[in-house]
Design a protein that fits this description.
Radius of gyration: 39 Å
Largest sheet: 5 strands, mixed
Order of helices and strands: HEEEHEHE
CATH architecture of one domain: 2-Layer Sandwich
CATH class of one domain: Alpha Beta
Shape: elongated
Number of strands: 5
Length: 136
């Protein structure tokens, strides 16, 4: 027994121990071998084929124009102020509800456009937009 001398067994190990890595890889391989057939197991069914086209119910668009004099035009047909509410009410009950696009002349009083908007809101139209010309 000699104290202070180094044996060959006390040296630092410079290599990675591969045994735990191989054990983990074998466990993972076994897990995949077991689970892959389970994942691919399905009942073979001969499904019938049918031809169909998706139904797209696109809402139509109502164009309400207000000219420079303040007259209303619904889809290019001139209408009276008293008829505006009834015509918009008839459009608001359609399914799907159409969109209302308001085109106001730049010289018309804002009051006329605001009245049309208020009438559309009162009868229940929810989709209201403004049409403008792009600036060049």
């Amino acid at each position: 027994m000699a104290f202070g001398t180094q044996d060959d067994t006390d040296e630092v190990m410079n290599e990675i121990n591969m045994t735990p890595l191989v054990d983990v890889m074998l466990v993972l391989l076994i897990i995949f071998i077991i689970t892959v057939p389970v994942m691919k197991h399905a009942v073979n069914i001969d499904l019938p084929s049918a031809k169909n086209q998706p139904l797209e119910a696109r809402p139509e668009t109502i164009r309400l124009s207000v000219d420079a004099k303040g007259d209303y035009y619904l889809n290019q047909d001139m209408i009276e102020d008293k008829d505006l509410q009834a015509m918009l009410k008839a459009e608001s009950v359609k399914v799907p509800q159409p969109e209302l696009h308001i085109r106001g002349d730049k010289n018309v009083k804002y009051e006329r456009v605001a009245q049309a908007m208020a009438t559309a809101q009162q009868v229940g139209l929810r989709k209201i937009g403004f049409i403008t010309e792009p600036k060049n």
